[in-house]
Amino acid sequence: MLLNLFGSDREAMSGVDTAWLRMDRPTNLMVINGIMFFDGPVDFERLSAVIDSRLLRHRRFKQKVVRSGANAAWEDDPDFDLANHLHLVALPGQAGKAELERMVNDLISTPLDFAKPLWQFYVVENYQGGSALIARIHHCIGDGIALIQVLLSMTDKEADAAVATRPRKPRFHAGGDDDDLFMRLYRPVAKMYTGMLKSYFKLIGTGYGLMMNPSKLAGYTQTGLGLAEGLARLTTLPADPRTRFKGPLSTVKRIAWSESLPLAEVKHVGRALGCSINDVLLSCVAGALRAYLIDAGEEDIDGLDIRASVPVNLRPESKLDQLGNYFGLVFLSLPIGVANPIERVYEVRRRMEEIKGSYDAVIALGLLSLLGMLPDAVEQPAIEYFSTKSTAVMTNVPGPREQIYMAGSPVRDLNFWVPQSGEIGIGVSILSYNEHVNFGVMTDKKLVAEPARIVERFGAEFEKLVLVTLMQHWDQPPDPGLAEINLALWSLMHDVEAES
């Protein structure tokens, strides 16, 4: 643990977590923001007891960050007080969605206090006749998969569960179905590189990244070649084109969230099109971004591609209940320039297949580990360089498949917003909960002042795909010529609409 650098009462931070810590800057705070919605009130005292017994069992939430040169460590906060992290607040005026958005906007633009453990919860007691819980947790504490497990450990399947109930050992909520929602990128890595990842995580645990130990790859000749080729491709990738989504950033962020899409309908559309659920959702994101750019007067849209940095979970199931960051990144090129929504979803599918067998995610995790152990003067230019390669961060996180309860109150819905690094100014988050899919968007105010104009287009893009799939037999296997058939159907409907 390299404790000698800090003293026996401190725990050295891993290289990867240190890298995320040092990415924090006024124009892009490395804080994951989430929200729970309730139809009724939340018992504040009971919630306090749940947090005390379940959240604070993770020592990390009672520790603050201390730095020494290029290194960072966790230290128990001798003055820890839950009252400094759990707040009861109320909305002004109509206490509706507009007022809640303003409150979240103010919070996400405010840095966390580094003199205390890096998290904050806010219970909004009067939202739309019910209530809401806003959570803010610094990325150095954990990634999305880790934090969703922490969230689940604080919830129950029944309203009357005991406060001190010991949470079950967490597991992925995505099952073995190849069409499952959020495992499309995780599963190939987990299956193909299991041996390498085991060795890799052992190296991470001792404070060394993959890139610091190339000799460890001696037994993986093919893997070593793939890593070398991937690293060369990653470092020579050209900068993403300049659009209204990319430019100088401010210190003010804006958020928006969508109405939920029924997961069953998304599954049916994917089956009818012969695509995965992920292909369908990412195609809707690309279509929504395209529609926004057109309405904003962006020129030369046709043929335009913009890249999204997509986190790929590399966390083995044995580490699901551990905090920290265990994910890499891949660059997904979104076909913004494809106008036909059917053609677009098939193009997304093709590009996802290209990513499927790449080593990019493992390389990214290794680079982050290495950067976290180098001086900040080296990390910051590297982060700036790699952030020019993409326009957005886009992440998928699997949430609970069934109704859950927080402190005895039923959770109606969930949403979250992913932070962006370097000069990236837009983040798109996709979260499943209780057989629904939710979209959240965070933007820099200087680039996109009203992210709701993007969010409101997700549903419209999905409806375009529904129009075609309504003409398919959803309970039958896809026809080999399905892509051509669906493209023809869309062209026909588009022509009829134009004539009318």
Automatic annotation (TrEMBL):
One of its GO terms (molecular function) is acyltransferase activity. Belongs to the long-chain O-acyltransferase family. Residues 324-465 form the O-acyltransferase WSD1 C-terminal domain. Gene3D superfamilies: Chloramphenicol acetyltransferase-like domain. Keywords: Acyltransferase, Glycerol metabolism, Lipid biosynthesis, Lipid metabolism, Transferase. Residues 13-280 form the O-acyltransferase WSD1-like N-terminal domain. Pathway: Glycerolipid metabolism; triacylglycerol biosynthesis; Lipid metabolism. Its EC number is 2.3.1.20. The keyword Glycoprotein does not apply. InterPro entries: Acyl_transf_WS/DGAT, CAT-like_dom_sf, O-acyltransferase_WSD1-like, O-acyltransferase_WSD1_C, O-acyltransferase_WSD1_N. It comes from the Bacteria. It catalyses: an acyl-CoA + a 1,2-diacyl-sn-glycerol = a triacyl-sn-glycerol + CoA. This is diacylglycerol O-acyltransferase.
